[in-house]
Structures are given as C-alpha cells and as structure tokens.
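call fold(seq) -> tokens
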Amino acid sequence: MSARLFRIRGEGNEVTAQHGVSGLRVEAWDIHGKIRDPLGVADTDTKGNFAISFDEAKFREFYPEIPPDVFFRVYQGETLRMSTENELLVNVGTDARVTIEVDLPTETVEGQDRITARQALRAADFVFRSDFRGVWKETTDKIGLATGFFRDMVKNTLTTMDIQPLRTSPQKTDQVVNRDVATAQENLKAQQIEVNQVMPYKPGLNAASLADLRTFPARLAPGQKVNLYEEQGVVRYYSIVTNPAGAESAAEVSRLSQEVDSVKARVDEVEQVKSQVEEVKTASATDRDTYAKEMADLKNQVAGIDDLKKEIAALKADSSKKDVIIKKLQDDIAASRRTT
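ret:
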C-alpha cells in the first residue's frame, strides 16, 4: 500500500503590520516526546504563502499509528525569528492550514554623516548643471515610442501568433536581493548562474554606479555571470558581468580558425579521393587496351583455324578423286591380265 501524502499550507504574517512576509524559510518538525523529526521546508512567496508536503515515511519510524504533532521554525536568512514548539499543531491531517505570526525587528540605520563640504558643493554643481527636465522629456518620449511599437507589434502579430509567449525568469530577484550571501550564491548556482565576485554595497552618483544601474538585469539566464553587492552580509544589489568586445572577437576568430582547419581537412580528403579515382581510371584504361589486343589475337587465330579447315577439306576431296582413279587403274590392269 502506498504511503499517504500530507500537505500543510499556510502564511507567514508580520505581527505589527499584519501582512504577508516574503522570503522566509519555514521548517516543519514532528515532535513526540524527545524525538523531533524534520518533515519539510519551504520559502514564503511574495504574499507570504507557503506549502510543505511529506508522506508517512517521515514520521512512522517510531510511532507508526500516531498522527504527527507539528511545530514550525521560521528563519529570515540564517537568523531564527521564531519557533512554535510551545504551540503544537496536534494530530495533523492530510490537508492542514496554519497562520504563523512573525515578529520581525525594525531596521534602523545608525552612523554619522560623512559628506564633506567639498562633496556637498560637487553635488550642488551636479544638480545645477543637470538638465533634469530635458532628461525627463527624453525618457517619456522613449517610453511613448516603445509603447506605440509594442502596440503595433501586438496588432500586427495577433493573426499569426508566430512568437513565443512571454514568461517570467526562473531566477526571481527576491531569491538574491535581501538574502544572505551564501543563500544567494546557492540560489544562483541552482540556476547555473556563476557569481563572479562579491563586493561592498557603496552606490553613489558616479560613473561606476550608473554603469551598474544600466546593467541591472530584468532577467537572468543560465550561463551568465553576476557581481553581488553586499552590506553587512546581506545582498543589496547585483549586476551582470559582460564580456569585453575583445574576448568575443577572440572567440569568434578561434571559431573561424577551427572551421577553416576543418575545411582544409575536407579538401585534403577530396584530393586523395580524386587521386585514387585517377589511378583506377588509368588501370582500367590499361586493362581495356590489353583485353582488346588479346581479343584481336584470338580473332586472328580463329580465322587461321577456319583456313586450315578449308585446306583439309580440299585435300580430302582431292584424295578421294585420286582413290577413284587408282581404283579404276587397278581394275583395268586386272582385266588385261585375264584376257592374256
């Protein structure tokens, strides 16, 4: 008989704000006496919902006839935020629901103002000389152009539907951002995305930060490399590592070189085959001439045999005539002897 499947569905709410919290790791445990067995683990989604499934094999080893009594441990990153070990979910059925209230600490920013007068003047100069209105108009114009292009694209392709439907990236941003560095690296590794390096999170109004903002990815794909930016062990941002144009050119040159070598090898093979064909043709021509000469000799021999046959036939005919003449002479001699 197959084991029954149990499922616990629930939500993790923040106590003060009373809303779902995403990115929490919820662990379900079975407890009987001093024995605690792990049943399963799940992360809360963007609305704070989670679902944990397990079968009877998880808790039947020591108490085969007793339904599980379940408690939960809730982690934010690697920090244990709460445990319900003192408030068990008793005799859990095959489909159970639970709401977990999590008291999360309020984040506070401590430190001192490190902006110097020189930096303040530079910032003021940046604001004074920047054409924010022009940039805003250019941005809105681009958005309007993109919107019109997308509208026309949808209108012109609805009849054919020859494009693949849009899908969200399998790698969610909340699986990296606001996670501890180790968890973010594991999540990226599971999607075959390599972490190039981990750097401190220090954004500012400078060229490097603007370049990182430009490369902030809406979608990540397997095979890409990313840089992680951490603050106090937590990932705050990430950017795609782009290959320099020189590396792509070198890779293209290497690929073309390999293709040229392959073509050269094929040409050499063709030349060898052509040489072998010529040798066969020459041998065939020689054999054909030899055969024709032998046939001509044989025909001459056959013609000579026919001439000999004719000569033999003529000699036989002549011999027969001579035999008749000799016979007649013998008869004449015998007759003359009788008369005398």
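The two ends are 145 Å apart (CA to CA).
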